[in-house]
Structure formats: structure tokens, C-alpha cells
């Protein structure tokens, strides 16, 4: 009797998990159509959506680290890297081909920032006596944050240049 109850519970949990997973991966037909219009194949869209899901998770992890650490908040206030990462993410979602020109941001900078903030948190919590390591970690995080902000700035300046050329040339 207990075995049947356990099997029923497992089956219910499995069904609920499948329903939840299906809802999570439900595709927005308008967005898919837009991506097709922009020249992406179904396979490109699948890869793009997974890349953007990963990027979103990384940005959220970075944001959480900033929210919970006053020194990381200071770095963010000075560099604006996290804010720039969010805006760059939004641009890439709207213009998926931008993922090609921003592959460093998506595949190197964001994962590295998550790794750096996690390492920084470990250094802070484990070795409170080694201030030099903590300060060095902050410097590296700040430098990468500045680089991400600069990446976003360059994307904006490219867009402004394109609009300027369109206005001047007709």
C-alpha cells in the first residue's frame, strides 16, 4: 500500500514537472515570427533563446551579488556595468543578430563576472585577514564592469552613427 502511494506521488510530481517545463519553454509566436523575419532559422532561434536564457540567469546572479555587498554596489555606482549589461541584453533580444557582434559579452564577460563575484564572495567570507586579495578581486571586478559598460556604449554609438547616416543620406 505504501509503495503504491509513493509511486502515485512520484507520478504526480513528474506530471507537474513536465507541465511546468512545457509552460516555461512555451514559445511566443509573434517573437518567433519576428526572429524569422530577421533571418534566423528555427535552429538559430533555439540556440539564441538558450544563450539569452543563460545570459539572463548570469545577469540575475550578478545583480544578486551587487545587492548583497556594499563594495560591489559602489563599483556598480561608479561603472554602471550591471545596468549596461541589462540594456545590452535588451538590445540583443530585440536585434538577435547583435548576438554575433557581442559574443564576448555573452560568452566571456558575463560568465567571467559571475565567476569573479562568486570568488570575491568566497574570499570575503573565508579569509577576512587577506585584505590584499579582497582589494585585488574588487579591482578585477571593476575593470570587467567598466569593459561591459564600454561595450554597451560602443553599441549605442554604432546605432547613433547608423541613424545619422540615414538622416544625412536620405
Helix and strand topology:
Blueprint: H1 2-24, H2 29-37, H3 42-67, H4 70-79, H5 81-94, H6 98-101, H7 103-126, H8 131-169
Helix pairs in contact: 3-5, 3-7, 4-8, 5-8, 7-8
User: What level of helicity do the residues show?
Assistant: over 70%
Number of strands: 0
- Measured between the Cα atoms of the first and last residue, the distance is 79 Å
* Overall pLDDT metric: 84
Order of helices and strands: HHHHHHHH
Hey, roughly how much beta strand do the residues contain? under 5%
**How would you sum up the major sheet?**
none
Provide the low-confidence segments as ranges: 21-25
Explain the overall architecture.
The protein has 170 residues and is mostly helical. It has helices at 2-24, 29-37, 42-67, 70-79, 81-94, 98-101, 103-126, 131-169. It contains eight helices and no strands. The protein is flat, with a radius of gyration of 21 Å. The relative contact order is 0.09.
Brief summary:
This protein is mainly α and about 170 residues long. The chain has helices at about 1-25, 30-35, 40-65, 70-80, 80-95, 100, 105-125, 130-170. It has 2 domains: about 1-40; about 40-170, no CATH class.
What attributes characterize this protein structure?
mainly alpha; 8 helices; 2 domains; flat; 170 residues; 5-bromo-4-chloroindolyl phosphate hydrolysis family protein; ChloroindolylP_hydrolase
Amino acid at each position: 500500500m505504501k509503495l503504491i502511494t509513493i509511486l502515485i506521488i512520484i507520478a504526480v510530481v513528474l506530471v507537474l514537472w513536465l507541465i511546468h517545463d512545457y509552460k516555461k519553454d512555451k514559445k511566443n509566436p509573434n517573437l518567433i515570427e519576428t526572429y524569422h523575419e530577421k533571418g534566423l532559422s528555427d535552429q538559430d532561434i533555439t540556440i539564441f533563446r538558450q544563450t539569452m536564457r543563460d545570459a539572463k540567469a548570469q545577469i540575475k546572479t550578478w545583480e544578486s551579488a551587487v545587492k548583497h555587498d556594499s563594495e560591489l554596489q559602489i563599483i556598480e555606482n561608479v561603472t554602471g556595468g550591471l545596468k549596461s549589461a541589462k540594456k545590452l541584453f535588451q538590445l540583443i533580444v530585440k536585434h538577435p543578430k547583435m548576438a554575433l557582434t557581442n559574443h564576448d559579452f555573452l560568452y566571456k564577460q558575463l560568465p567571467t563576472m559571475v565567476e569573479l563575484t562568486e570568488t570575491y564572495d568566497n574570499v570575503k567570507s573565508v579569509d577576512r585577514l587577506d585584505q590584499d586579495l579582497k582589494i585585488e578581486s574588487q579591482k578585477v571586478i571593476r575593470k570587467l564592469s567598466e569593459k561591459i559598460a564600454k561595450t554597451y556604449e560602443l553599441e549605442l554609438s554604432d546605432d547613433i552613427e547608423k541613424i545619422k547616416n540615414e538622416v544625412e543620406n536620405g
